[in-house]
């Protein structure tokens, strides 16, 4: 068993947060040389390099990012057990940190209520909803326990684990006129104005991978699905929109799907590090692993 002191774990977590040895040493109330020795002692005991000291500000190595999750879990479990033995939080709940893309948080998480809000787990949830790439970075940086997001190549391999949750689709849609007919006709007009996603956005990259194109006449581009949806509803052009974001508009007839373009699939997953998490997180992961893929996320 490794001879690791809990203060080293706390030192490491503070350093990971502040990204500066001097500032972290001040917070931990020790001299910088002493603080640096404690971090080196932790690395030596683990046999791992946790800190990339060549960067300014310093950064965690890949091993460091993985170990950050482990260190947080260990500290949480020690604190909770001490509190339980002291009788101060026998009924206390562990907070499970979830990161999610905005649209996924709205469309998917409520469908998983039996797993996420299982009273037997005695947990509370902290949900951080962001743009897709920002949500992914929270997991990579060890700032969340689970990430609910779309397919990501880099998260499909070690040091990450994933569970497939279901499939959604991007549909090419148009607003309609007073008679309920689409404002734009791709079958007879190759120059229809289109509202596109920026190339660096997740949706933009997904459409590029699928070689899905609209027309050469791009009148506006954005990374925000809701913004593009608003412009489509105003009749400014056509665009790709995810089914879960336009369920009501399709049902009411405000939007119609242009069948000249094949829908683009979007697979959704929950991701985590391989590192062992708090027992409450592991129990939740076990429940999620039992869920059958949701076939219609917009249903």
UniProtKB/TrEMBL annotation:
Organism: Photobacterium frigidiphilum
Keyword field contains Transcription: yes
Family according to the record: Belongs to the LysR transcriptional regulatory family.
Superkingdom of the organism of origin: Bacteria
Keyword annotations: DNA-binding, Transcription, Transcription regulation
Keyword DNA-binding tagged: yes
Database matches in Gene3D superfamilies: Periplasmic binding protein-like II, Winged helix-like DNA-binding domain superfamily/Winged helix DNA-binding domain
Alphabetized GO MF terms: DNA-binding transcription factor activity; transcription cis-regulatory region binding
Stated name of the protein: LysR family transcriptional regulator
Residues annotated as domain HTH lysR-type: 4-61
Pfam families: HTH_1 (PF00126), LysR_substrate (PF03466)
């Amino acid at each position: 068993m490794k001879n690791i002191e809990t203060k080293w774990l706390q030192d490491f977590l503070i350093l990971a947060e502040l990204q500066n040895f001097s500032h972290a040493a001040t917070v931990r109330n020790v001299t910088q040389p002493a603080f640096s020795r404690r971090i080196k002692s932790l690395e030596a005991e683990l046999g791992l390099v946790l800190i990339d000291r060549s960067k300014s500000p310093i950064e965690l190595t890949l091993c460091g990012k993985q170990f950050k999750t482990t260190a947080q879990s260990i500290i949480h479990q020690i604190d909770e057990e001490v509190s339980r033995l002291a009788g101060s939080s026998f009924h206390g709940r562990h907070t499970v940190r979830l990161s999610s893309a905005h649209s996924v948080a709205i469309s998917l998480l409520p469908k998983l209520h039996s797993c996420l809000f299982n009273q037997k787990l005695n947990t509370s949830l902290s949900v951080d909803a962001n743009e897709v790439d920002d949500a992914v970075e929270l997991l990579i940086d060890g700032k969340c326990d689970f990430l609910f997001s779309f397919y990501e190549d880099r998260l499909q391999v070690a040091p990450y684990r994933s569970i497939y949750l279901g499939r959604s689709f991007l549909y090419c849609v148009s607003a309609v006129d007073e008679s309920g007919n689409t404002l734009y006709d791709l079958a007879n007009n190759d120059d229809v104005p289109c509202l596109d996603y920026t190339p660096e956005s997740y949706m933009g990259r997904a459409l590029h991978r699928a070689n899905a194109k609209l027309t050469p006449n791009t009148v506006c581009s954005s990374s925000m699905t809701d913004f593009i949806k608003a412009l489509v509803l105003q009749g400014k052009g056509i665009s790709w929109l995810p089914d879960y974001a336009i369920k009501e508009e399709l049902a009411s007839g405000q939007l119609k799907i242009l069948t000249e373009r094949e829908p683009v699939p979007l697979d959704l997953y929950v991701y985590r590090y391989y590192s062992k998490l708090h027992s409450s997180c592991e129990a939740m992961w076990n429940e999620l692993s039992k869920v059958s893929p949701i076939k219609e996320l917009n249903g």
